[in-house]
Amino acid sequence: MTINEVSKKFGITMDTLRYYERAGMIPPVTRASNGNRDYQEDDLNWVGLAICMRNSGLPVGGIAQYVRLYQAGDSTLSERHQLLSDQKKILQDQRNQIDETLERLNIKIAKYEIAAKTGKLSW
Question: CA torsion, points 22, 76, 71, 83, in degrees to nearest 10?
Fold first, then answer.
């Protein structure tokens, strides 16, 4: 796939794809004989993973570290596991905070809905 096709597939700019490669967030992309990027299935999997990791809040350096560890082979399995587990914990903590906030807002909203019907706000 061309960089333009990959850009459209993932909904990110071509500049972002180039940046991911320069920053080490994905391994070097397969190149065609003319030197243009020619994304193969493995390359697409790395792009998808980089997007997922960014969406999880993992910093660019953390993603690049994961790629380096992966490229170093199976001797880094525990480090990769730990990196992903740590980020999962961060996401779970954020989710818990959001859930608590939503619960509190839902209570407030319900009280205002009752107040709108009765004309009285009671806490």
Answer: -30
Q: What is the pTM of this model?
A: 0.81
What is the mean pLDDT of the segment spanning 90-112? 96
Q: 83-102 as b/e, with b when 16 or more CB fall inside 10 Å?
A: beeebeeeeeeeeeeeeeee
Helix/strand/coil for 37: strand
- Record the tokens describing residue 81, joined without a space: 């596991």
The per-residue pLDDT for range 10-57, each reduced to its tens digit, is 999 999 999 999 999 999 999 999 999 999 999 999 999 999 999 999
Cα-flanking dihedrals φ and ψ of residue 57, to 5°? 95, 0
Grouping H, G, I as helix, E, B as strand and the rest as coil, residue 122 is: coil
CA 61 to each of CA 14, 42, 44: distance values in angstroms, whole numbers, following the listed order: 20, 21, 20
Per the listing, tokens 């209570």 go with 107
Q: Give the domains, in start order, of the chain with CATH numbers.
A: 3-72 (1.10.1660.10)
